[in-house]
Design brief:
The complex is a heterodimer of chains A (797) and B (550). Chain A has 797 residues and is of the alpha+beta class. Chain A contains 31 helices and 25 strands. Chain A folds into 6 domains: 8-147, no CATH class; 158-239; 257-501, no CATH class; 512-594, no CATH class; 599-667; 722-797, SH3 type barrels (Roll), CATH 2.30.30.100. In chain B, helix 3 (63-73) runs antiparallel to helix 4 and helix 6 crosses helix 13.
Chain lengths: 797, 550
């Protein structure tokens, strides 16, 4: 490179295309919106917001190295490029500039040093460091700002706290000697502050204050206010024997695991169970949708009722309800009295293949920002516990945690189940700047939900779970193929569905009917049989099998739905592997015997008369046909027409009826199956991914822009005429008017349709209505819009 | 995924497919920890309960064995949560133990100590409001003194909070008394011997055997093993007499050695048979006969029909924890839900054999259960429809329409010993008149009852009309037909008893018949449905026929 590198911008301009691609992939925020050129890319990379984001994404290993570099940079900052001669060259021929770094990190062995070097390279790759010509690493200026005044619990340097002190006071050897000479109470005081915080309150009592005074006199503590003292960075480092961190953890802590078997089978079982729960939820809510409470959730009582209907505990029912919502299978129907009802998508969903159904649930879970485990807990400042489906359950952090957990699980070999505590340690290491409390309940909840879903089986990631993890953006290994975006997920969903289909229990097409009026389905039932059984029998026990019980009420339900006793018996007989017990046949015929003994119908008006012949006449009258009169009894007719219409029409045709009060007309209607309109698909945030393809294009674009900017500059230089400064339109207008008056030539810059600026020498004739009429260089009359004129300058004679 | 016979459900029930080739092995594997809940013809339902798991622990089974049994025989993968739960629950048993410390001849004597291997558990239970007062001074981090009189109450309370204590404090030997089985003309059946061994090794506990399977003999065997003075608690006087006869016949005990302690007689002898009723008699709020429990240094206490044990006896039993206790019953199911008290105060289940198994071994006659439905005449239907709800059951079950059906059935089984069972005295007397048979009710004097039973036994009388009293602990060896005309509201326990009546071993292996006569479209039919369900769940096939089709 011909130009010397003096900044991050220079460094970035010097990076190869693949290095730039890596940078943008690691920090996608740099690419949104696309920067104009590499200089603006560099500028964006050193903004506080972007650096903050990059630093927060660092794991503990990288963070510790970065902290050490910041501290070290402060150390050597005032000795510009007068490198100590002891610097060695490493294997790659790069000068090993980090002896101080190794000491700070307490790294001794060659292997560990290689690790540190690797981490430093990573930090450079993500643009938190830049390399000068000397290949010395420099921390980007914004990083110390982001890390704050105390780095790794160390205070500010002594010269910042007390500029008047000579550098001698920062000399480690001298400090060590002073510290060793300190009286033991003072030593104890220092030791308390060794690992931070570096600020302390001056003790009030006599003994303490005398120790503090000694320390202040010897510049081991520096007073910062009337009652506070600070431990200067140099002193802190000396106390820490030159090491920056108490524990340097450069590599991720091991996740302890145990081998488990039958992972996929267990996952398949859980998945099948979940699908059953959702079918039942749709059936239960379809028949009797629960009210939506005013804040938009499901009331605790309704959740309890749902839990009882599904035979689950509250936590798990909340999970089922929330996942149904996330998968858009239930929604608030938006009516005047809103209820939670299955959406129109349920029917299509139920009809699809089981693996596919599962995939849609699993993807919904992974993408949802709702945390079902918060249901029933007090969240934030809320006074009452969070309701299922309510706004308090929204917690975007949960999505990140789910994905992190999935990524960690995917990094383990198949069939290994992680120990939750060591997994927690690993996640804390991955994101050291995230408050530990974020993970407290969430990790357990995510692991539990993963097990319920069948993403894990016995704690280990199942094959479908792995497929799910691969299908999510950012969960695939960072250097491997990157996941697809949320939007384009059809193929991903298919892969997940295929992975699960293999492990779902095979559907069965038969039941075993027994004399105690139970029917046992020894596996998940096929669609039509499942709905018949759900209709005609009550579910008594769920799990791998389902136990149904025929009761008079359940048989009646089937008859109500239009089954005849013969069809009923026939269907059960055909589906049963065992001979039909006599009591069941008896039960069905007994219920059928009574079924329909009384009839109920609807009519909106009746006509009664003691004179049967009058009613006969009405029935026979052709003109009364539209009333559709029916005879219920010799003296009673009914009609579907409104009583008032009836009365009017009868009067028109010569009868003399009187209207009776409304009591007596009974209207029964079958309860309709409620369906809310499809939940409005929130337009998904259009996240087009910053992936390899995109980045390659972007970098190519940046290069081109860089090149064309150079070219433009060159063309600009070669053009005739003076440089035209950009002028304010007001200034331009007055200048043009002057030129008209004085008949001067004017150089103007006019932006053309291509975005370029053309230069013209014109002689303005008149300025009017935002336009200027003039003769150009060729003597042609032309007009220009003033707003297109970028600047103007008088022709120098 | 294996193709096992067992399906584990999420509500902790186990479904066992009986026709599967491995069903028998699976049944053996799960029987120690899972309670058989229903046993219809194709698929049996077992339930895993904490009590069941603790029973298994008490019998020496460990969680690994249980988990292994589930995984080995399960058709689908067993949910992990269930396995973890099983292991956790089982691990709770024995975390606390009741032990005896010191020596009887040392100056301090012995003391009872609640000891734990796990300090937090002890801390947790000692913080409990009801448990704290039952304990004395703290010995160290892991042990606390318990007053011997609180041994029972403490176990009860600990079970309630889910930390059942293992009682290792042993038993007093009691006053020795020679008792031998008199095996000249009979021998114990294998399962009876197993039951006795199971009990004796366990120390105290319950033996579950169906009616007619010889529970009295298990009691006698236990007495012969203990060779100590014995107190036998039975439900009523008739039952007491039968125990006495059976003991005289089967053991070396003589008439002078066996005492009866009942309303009529108050004898205290080396072997004393007392009724629950006399023990629970109170005068001015005081149990007058409580002294019986301390009248002798009993070495063994036998509770007949544990599932009927009244609550006051539980309280008395709480004070008898130092003595060996044997509970005998046909079922651990208690209508009042006091199963847990049986576990903590009498002891864990020591032996259990499902009815069907014993029947298959030929000791119980197979039964044919038929429900006969009669239609009420129109007049009665109207009366029924307008009756107050509390009168409806009586109206329905005492319908005249039932009488000809009973008559017809009795005629059909003319020469077979037949019991007609009912609840309402009017109805019973009416029936007796119609059938020209004798009636036994609660009012019948004991002597008369004995006479009629003897006559029935010898075949002199072939039909008896009996009321509720016949339900409990009588022994009618030759009854082979039972006709039930009315009964308490669908009680499961009553059904077990009634079925037991006709299930006694028959000389010639005839099929026993059990008829229930029910009025159609009334509450009677609803209650009958409960009873039938119970029968079907016990594996008895039943049919429903209309009275006209008989």
């Amino acid at each position: 490179m011909p130009t010397p590198r003096r900044s991050l911008a220079d460094d970035i301009r010097g990076r190869s295309d693949s290095e730039l691609t890596d940078l943008v992939l690691a920090r996608p925020d740099l690419a949104r919106p696309s920067p104009a050129d590499l200089t603006s890319l560099a500028a964006r990379a050193s903004t506080r917001a972007s650096v903050q984001r990059a630093v927060e994404a660092l794991d503990r290993g990288h963070l510790q190295v970065l902290e050490a570099l910041v501290i070290e940079g402060g150390d050597v900052g005032d000795r510009p490029s007068t490198e100590s001669p002891s610097s060695e060259l490493d294997a790659a021929g790069r000068r090993d500039s980090e002896p101080g770094l190794f000491t700070l990190l307490g790294v001794e062995s060659t292997g560990d040093r290689a690790v540190v070097t690797g981490l430093v390279d990573d930090l450079w790759r993500v643009g938190l460091l830049w390399r000068g010509d000397d290949r010395e690493h420099h921390v980007v200026r914004t990083v110390p700002e982001v890390l704050g005044p105390t780095v790794a619990g160390l205070g500010a340097p002594i010269e910042e706290l007390r500029p008047s002190l000579t550098p001698r006071h920062g000399d480690p050897e001298a400090l060590r000697a002073t510290i060793d000479a300190a009286p033991s109470p003072a030593r104890a005081m220092l030791e308390k502050m060794t690992w931070g915080p570096s600020l302390g309150v001056l003790p009030q009592e006599r003994a303490g204050s005398s120790s503090a005074r000694w320390l202040i006199e010897h510049h081991l503590l520096v007073p910062v206010s009337a009652d506070r003292v600070a431990l200067p960075r140099e002193v802190g480092l000396a106390l820490r024997s030159g090491r920056l961190h108490r524990d340097t953890v450069l590599v991720p802590p091991e996740v302890t695991t145990r081998a488990v078997s039958l992972t996929d089978a267990v996952a398949g079982g859980s998945a099948s169970e979940l699908l059953t729960h959702l079918d039942e939820l749709a059936a239960v809510w379809g028949a009797e949708p629960p009210r939506a409470v005013r804040t938009g959730g499901l009331s605790v009582r309704d959740l309890k009722a749902t839990a009882a209907a599904l035979d689950l505990d509250l936590d798990r029912s909340a999970f089922v309800v929330e996942i149904a919502y996330a998968a858009r299978l239930v929604a608030d129907d938006g009516e005047v009295v809103p209820v939670w009802a299955p959406t129109s998508e349920v029917d299509e969903w139920s009809a699809s293949e089981a693996g596919h159904r599962w995939a849609s649930l699993a993807l919904a879970w992974a993408r949802s920002t709702r945390a079902a485990h918060l249901v029933g807990r007090k969240v934030g400042s809320g006074l009452s516990a969070a309701n299922a489906l309510g706004p308090d359950v929204q917690w975007p952090a949960i999505r990140g945690i789910r994905r992190e957990v999935l990524r960690e699980l995917a990094s383990l070999e198949a069939g290994l189940s992680p120990d939750a505590e060591s997994l927690r340690e690993r996640l804390l290491w991955r994101r050291p700047l995230r408050p530990a409390s974020v993970l407290s309940d969430a990790l357990d909840a995510v692991l539990r939900e993963a097990e319920w879903l069948g993403v894990t089986g016995r704690g280990a990631l199942s094959a479908p779970g792995r497929a799910l993890s691969d299908a999510l953006p950012g969960t695939a290994s960072p250097r491997g193929r990157t996941g697809t975006a949320d939007g384009a997920s059809d193929s991903a969903g298919r892969a997940v569905a295929v992975a699960m289909s293999a492990h779902l229990p095979k559907p069965v097409d038969h039941v075993l009917v027994q004399a105690d009026l139970t029917a046992v389905a020894p596996g998940p039932l096929e669609g039509s049989l499942a709905s018949f059984m759900r209709l005609s029998a009550d579910v008594e026990s769920r799990g791998g099998a389902t136990v149904y019980r025929f009761t008079p009420a359940s048989v009646r339900r089937a008859l109500d739905a239009g089954w005849t006793a013969a069809e009923f018996i026939d269907t059960v007989r055909r589906s049963s592997r065992t001979p039909l017990p006599q009591p069941l046949e008896y039960l069905v015929s007994d219920v059928a015997r009574k079924h329909g003994q009384t009839r109920v119908g609807g009519a909106s008006a009746y006509i009664r008369s003691d004179d049967e012949s009058v009613l006969e006449t009405m029935l026979a009258a052709r003109e009364l046909a539209p009333l559709q009169l029916r005879r219920l009894a010799p003296t009673v007719l009914v009609s579907g027409a409104d009583p008032r219409v009836l009365v009017e029409l009868l009067r028109d045709h010569g009868f003399v009826p009187i209207q009776e009060g409304q009591d007596g007309s009974v209207v029964h209607a079958e309860a309709p199956r409620r369906r809310a309109g499809s939940r409005r698909r929130a337009v998904p945030p259009a996240v087009s991914p910053v992936d390899a393809d995109f980045t390659t294009t972007l970098v190519a674009g940046l290069r081109a822009a860089e090149a064309s900017a150079d070219e433009r500059r060159a063309v600009e230089e070669s053009r005739p005429g003076p440089r035209i400064p950009t002028t304010d339109p007001v200034v331009t207008l007055s200048l043009l008017r002057d030129a008209v008056a004085e008949r001067h030539g004017v150089w103007i810059g006019v932006s053309d349709q291509g975005g370029g600026v053309a230069r013209h020498l014109i002689h303005p004739r008149r300025v009017d209505g935002g336009r200027v009429w003039a003769t150009d260089e060729g003597g042609r009359e032309k007009s220009y819009s003033v707003h297109r004129i970028t600047g103007a300058t008088l022709e120098t004679p | 995924m294996t193709d096992g016979p067992l399906i584990v459900q999420s509500d902790k029930t186990l479904l066992l497919e009986v026709d599967h080739p491995d069903a028998e092995a699976a049944r053996r594997a799960i029987a120690p920890f899972a309670e058989l809940e229903r046993a219809p013809e194709h698929i049996h339902t077992y339930r895993i309960t904490p009590l069941g798991l603790w029973n298994a622990r008490a019998a020496g089974h460990d969680a690994e064995g249980v988990v292994d049994a589930l995984i080995t025989y399960s058709r689908y993968a067993v949910p992990n949560a269930l396995l973890v739960d099983v292991a956790d629950t089982m691990a709770r048993y024995g975390r606390l133990t009741l032990e005896k410390e010191g020596f009887a001849d040392s100056p301090e004597g012995t003391r009872l100590v609640l000891r734990t291997t796990d300090r937090p558990v002890l801390e947790e239970v000692l913080r409990h409001k009801k448990i704290k007062p039952l304990t004395g001074e703290r010995i160290d981090d892991l042990a606390v003194v318990v007053h011997p009189s609180e041994r029972g109450s403490l176990k009860q309370e600990l079970l309630k909070v889910g930390w059942p204590a293992e009682d290792l404090a042993g038993y007093v030997d009691g006053e020795a008394h020679p008792i031998e089985l008199n095996l000249a003309d009979w021998h114990l059946r294998p399962y009876q011997q197993q039951a006795i061994d199971g009990f004796w090794h366990g120390g105290s506990g319950v033996v579950v055997l169906p009616c007619g399977a010889g529970k009295t003999l298990v009691g006698a065997g236990a007495m012969a093993a203990a060779k100590a003075t014995t107190l036998i608690l039975v439900t009523n006087t008739v039952s007491a007499r039968q125990w006495r006869d059976e003991l005289l016949r089967r053991t070396s005990l003589t008439d002078e050695e066996i005492g009866e302690y009942s309303g009529a007689r108050k004898e205290i002898r080396p072997v004393t048979i007392a009724t629950y009723q006399v023990l629970t008699t109170r005068r001015k709020g005081v149990y007058t006969h409580l002294g019986l429990l301390d009248a002798k240094d009993w070495g063994l206490i036998v509770y007949d029909e544990v599932h009927l044990l009244p609550a006051p006896i539980f309280r008395m039993t709480a004070d008898l924890q130092a003595r060996r206790r044997l509970g005998l019953t046909a079922t651990l199911v208690r209508e009042d839900g006091h199963e847990a008290d049986v576990f903590s105060l009498i002891g864990p289940k020591r032996f259990d054999a499902p009815w069907k198994d014993i029947e298959a071994q030929g000791y119980i006659a197979p039964a044919d259960c038929v429900e006969v439905r009669v239609s009420l005449p129109d007049g009665q239907r109207m009366t029924y429809a307008t009756a107050e709800p509390e009168d409806r059951y009586r109206l329905a079950s005492c319908s005249d329409a039932k009488l000809p059906v009973v008559q017809q059935l009795v005629a059909r089984h003319r020469d077979e010993p037949t019991l007609v069972i009912g609840q309402y005295l009017d109805q019973l007397h009416e029936l007796a008149e119609l059938l020209q048979a004798d009636v036994i009710t609660g009012e019948t004097p004991v002597k008369e009852r004995q006479r009629l039973y003897d006559a029935f036994r010898t075949g002199e009388v072939s039909t008896l009309v009996v009321s509720k009293v016949a339900n409990f602990s009588i022994d009618l060896p030759e009854a082979s037909v039972a006709i039930q005309v009315s009964g308490t509201f669908g009680s499961r326990q009553e059904e077990a008893q009634r079925l037991g009546r006709v299930l006694r071993p028959k000389g010639d292996g005839r099929t026993a018949h059990f008829y229930t006569i029910v009025s159609r479209d009334t509450v009677d039919a609803d209650f009958a449905a409960h009873r039938q369900r119970f029968l079907a769940e016990q594996g008895y096939s039943y049919r429903i026929v209309d009275a006209d089709d008989l």
